[in-house]
């Protein structure tokens, strides 16, 4: 029987895993960390360096990439050690700080996705008023709301200990030296899931469904208009654009729901089943949510040709050349 801390009374038990299982888990988690940090760092460098990318919409993507980068840098490595060993070696205070950072950055990432959907709504549904409504000041308000709500809620919840009311006896019964878990009672398990995921997620789904409906109707109007024209090339282009929009929105929502929905469903139901969810299942759903931060650069950056050009410039080393910040990455701007 292995302990997290030898010769320490009331030490937690260390989980013994078969070498093959340990290796697979380590490779998957370490790979997710590398993908998250490197992918989001490329987005941060791209938007920060290239002057042509300095416009309000990209500031949302820059802030999203920063949140996801920090998840990969300061949250996931410690969670990896805990998931592999079931032990926490970094002290009780940092356990709370880590829980706060985890909740803050993951919630912030979700809120960024929501505000990006708001940005896309105005771009597609109200294109004539887009630049008037989505100004730099509005984007700054979005970012202030995202970071302040995420920080205040997360740190306030963890350090106030309101989430432990009514379950103190249960927490005391399983506590041991080397444990670090954020256990939420029924009330706060539901409230936190609503605030951090279900409310912004439901709004985001509604927005994207409306965007898709508007884009489809616009494509049909264009198709009908050009069906009476000898040259139907434009209508064919509109049909391709509709299909591309449908594919992109399907990927955005599918990945988001696939990554985060299982974890937050688990967060809601676990207090109602006497916290009987297996630890390994919890870790699988947690890391599935983390993996969304690794996929965000691909979904929100690599789908755009100008980001692909920026990445190529960074990887090739051309970014180090004088005047590279003035490179033309956008066409028609």
UniProtKB/TrEMBL annotation:
Membrane-traversing stretches: 24-47, 59-81, 101-118, 138-159, 191-211, 249-269, 281-303
Pfam family, one: 7tm_1
Biological source species: Xenopus tropicalis (Western clawed frog)
Membrane-topology annotation of the record: Multi-pass membrane protein
GO cellular component: plasma membrane
Protein family per UniProt: Belongs to the G-protein coupled receptor 1 family.
Example GO molecular function: trace-amine receptor activity
CDD domains in the cross-refs: 7tmA_TAAR2_3_4
Example GO biological process: G protein-coupled receptor signaling pathway
UniProt keyword Cell membrane, yes or no: yes
Compartments, as annotated in UniProt: Cell membrane
Official protein name in the record: Trace amine-associated receptor 4
Signal sequence extent: none
Span of domain G-protein coupled receptors family 1 profile: 39-300
Gene3D superfamilies: Rhodopsin 7-helix transmembrane proteins
Lineage: Eukaryota, Metazoa, Chordata, Craniata, Vertebrata
Main location: membrane
UniProt keyword terms in alphabetical order: Cell membrane, Disulfide bond, G-protein coupled receptor, Glycoprotein, Membrane, Receptor, Transducer, Transmembrane, Transmembrane helix
């Amino acid at each position: 029987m292995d302990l997290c801390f030898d010769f320490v009374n009331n030490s937690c038990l260390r989980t013994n895993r078969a070498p093959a299982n340990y290796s697979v888990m380590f490779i998957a988690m370490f790979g997710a960390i590398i993908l998250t940090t490197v992918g989001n760092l490329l987005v941060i460098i791209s938007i920060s360096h290239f002057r042509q990318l300095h416009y309000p919409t990209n500031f949302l993507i820059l802030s999203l990439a920063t949140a996801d980068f920090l998840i990969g840098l300061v949250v996931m490595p410690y969670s990896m050690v805990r998931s592999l060993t079931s032990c926490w070696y970094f002290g009780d205070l940092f356990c709370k700080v880590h829980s706060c950072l985890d909740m803050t950055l993951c919630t912030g990432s979700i809120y960024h996705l929501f505000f990006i959907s708001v940005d896309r709504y105005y771009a597609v549904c109200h294109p004539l008023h887009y630049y008037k409504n989505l100004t730099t000041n509005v984007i700054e308000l979005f970012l202030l709301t995202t970071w302040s709500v995420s920080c205040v809620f997360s740190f306030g919840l963890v350090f106030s200990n309101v989430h432990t009311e009514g379950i103190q006896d249960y927490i005391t019964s399983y506590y041991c030296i080397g444990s670090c878990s954020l256990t939420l009672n029924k009330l706060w398990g539901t409230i936190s899931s609503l605030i951090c995921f279900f409310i912004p997620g439901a709004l985001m789904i509604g927005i994207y469904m409306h965007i898709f409906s508007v884009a489809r109707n616009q494509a049909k109007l264009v198709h009908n208009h050009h069906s009476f024209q000898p040259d139907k090339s434009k209508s064919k282009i509109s049909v391709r654009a509709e299909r591309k929009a449908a594919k992109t929105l399907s990927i955005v929502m599918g990945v988001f729901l696939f990554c985060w929905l299982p974890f937050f469903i688990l967060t809601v139901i676990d207090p109602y089943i006497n916290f009987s969810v297996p630890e390994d299942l919890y870790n699988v759903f947690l890391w599935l949510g983390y993996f969304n931060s690794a996929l965000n650069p691909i979904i929100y950056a690599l789908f755009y040709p100008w980001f692909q050009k920026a990445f190529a410039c960074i990887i090739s080393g051309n970014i180090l050349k004088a005047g590279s910040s003035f490179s033309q990455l956008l066409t028609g701007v």
